[in-house]
Amino acid sequence: KNTENQLGLTWPLCTLVQLAAGDFRLNLGRWVTIVEDGNVSSQDNEFVCSEIESCATAILETVQLMTSLADDGEGVIASGVWVPEALLHIRKSLEDALNSSVQYLNSFSCGQDETPIAVSDQANNVGRICCVLVGTIASELEVEDLLISASIDERNMELTKEAEASCFATALAAGMLLCNAMGEKNVTNAERLETSEPLCCLLPCIMSVVACSNSNKNVQTAVSSLDRPLVYVMSRFLHRAGERWKHLDRRSQTDEAFTILSITGLCLLIIEEMVTSSASRVGYQELTSPLIVWKEALLEEEDEVEDALKEHVDTTLQQVGNCLIILKTYQ
After folding, report:
1. Domain ranges of the chain
2. How far apart are the C-alpha atoms of 327 and 288, rounded to whole Å?
């Protein structure tokens, strides 16, 4: 009864989201045990994966709801339906889900030259779900705090500050490498880019991360640790997107053409921000080759492109040119 009084009319939803986040954490733990025990092929695991997916769906729907409420501003509280305590309660549940996803990705993190764990389609799907949650929830939180705080779960007080600082960054790096591995596997997939490339779900979060890299020294250190995997993943993604663009029938697949250009444009913004703000300057030459391929492909078709796409093609071409200039300047 006390909870109902504190959370107001939205207490059933607050409780539901809290339960979804809790079940998500518990089933992720069960899945980690399954993978470590080598029992991934067991049919009994379908239930665990189904629970993870169902909980994640509820959590993502909640993020969308919170985003729409944030757009309403002060009107949310003025309506009398939502009280500040309820909004805080929902936020803590979302942070719990984010923390669970971060811990999972860190459990199976690997180096750039290693293959991320992908022992089954189920394992790939669980990893993809965690990447979607990290990319979606983190984009709505204060990314700077995530980069310099240990783990959102303050129960891990025994961690040192050095270990804490890398928790979110290492999970993001692991997620990028996992998404890249799945993208490479789906390179011949005829599905839409957003479906075949799980990395798309992380791009807004990555953009937020690199954009705040100069806010303070601790954040800059955390972001710098992402440079090498980010350069590698961006290079491979641009290559795959470029190949998809070259083989796309843009007359009959205009929507997909817009999608490819929009997502590629976001990658180019990430590259530009990363190169100009980073202190490491490591391995940027890897980005030059796919950018040149993109430039040649866009120039080749500049005069033949449909009017509906021309402005987007010109914008992307300008972005590619800017990135090449920046890379030459900072190398």
Report:
1. 226-331
2. 7
